[in-house]
Each structure stands twice: as C-alpha cells, then as structure tokens.
Task: structure prediction
Amino acid sequence: MHSTEMKNKVALIGGSFDPVHLGHLMLFHSAWKYIEIEELVVIPALLSNFKQDRKPVSFEDRAEMLEQAFLDYRDLFKDSDLKLTLSRIEGERGGISFTSDTIRALYDRYAENGKVNFIIGDDLASSLDKWHDFEYLKSHVRFFCFKRDDGEIRKVDAEIHFIDSDIYKASSTDVRKGDGSLLSRRVREYIDEHHLY
Result:
C-alpha cells in the first residue's frame, strides 16, 4: 500500500504502442509501484517523430488495443489501484507527434509543482537534448527513466529520475514478426479478430 506522504499523482507516457504488449503493462505497473502515481495517462502517437520511416497500424486500432490492454492490466495486477487513462490528443491533432506540443496542450491539466511527470525508457534518455523544443521540455517536464540494462546513459541537462526495476523483455517488433506470447489476452484476441500484423 502506498504511503500518505506527498507523492506524484499523475504521470504521462507516450509511444507508438504498435502494438501494446506485456512489457508495456509491466512498465505501467512499475510506474505505479515505484513512482507511486495514482493515474497514468497513456498517449499513443499518430506518427512518432522517431519512427517516420515506418507506417504503423491505424491510430484507432492502436487506441482500441490500449483500451483492451487496460482491461487486461486489471486482471494481471489485482493489487494495483492505478487509473489508466487513454489520451487521443495526438490522433486528434494530426501530423507528427512532438512531445513538446503534447506537453504544452496538457500542461495546465497535469503539471505538479511546476512540471509534468513523463515516463521514458533508458533508450531515450541519452538523446533527450535532441528532442524537438528541448528547452521547453527541460523547464516543464520531470522525466522518470526506467532502466532496462546496465549500459551507460549519457548525461543530459534535464530533471531525470532514474529507476531500477524489473522490466519484462518484450518488443513490438517481435510481436509484429509473429510472437503472440508477448501479448495480453484481449489484445491478442483483438489482433486476431482484425487480422493485424
């Protein structure tokens, strides 16, 4: 059970989620467990700035898979009272999904003590200063970085809290290549029913 001390109540996480898999659900649970948040806002990208060379499955399919994954999360982590919220802001806005634009749009709603809590993986931490409008992000975002290995991460001038946790080894690439064992039940059923991947 969480303590009653001051804690971060809401965090945001973005990504392609093409598709959402068990590794993502484990990350959501780790965020609840280690950052002690009450709500996680999950933001699928319409078109990721980092993956412009690949056309993902439709935004609507990815959003629906996330909704199914939220139900699976409840079955898998019965001890968790984490509220999972889907934000369609990047799909509604259109174009390339820049994190800075999304933070600007959601800042007033989700900022805590002057910054928005945003979750990233260690694969992104070293390149944060290369992100679009980094100066804005640096002053408006508190990053929580979940470490997946012991590799060295280049120091970046931003507020980054590194968290060691057990991360389930899974990738969307492996799922797209046919490994359905990395999927939660409802997401796997959705993919089969709609003949995705």
The chain has eight helices and six strands. The chain has one domain: 10-194. Helices lie at 22-35, 59-76, 89-93, 99-110, 122-125, 134-140, 172-176, 185-194.
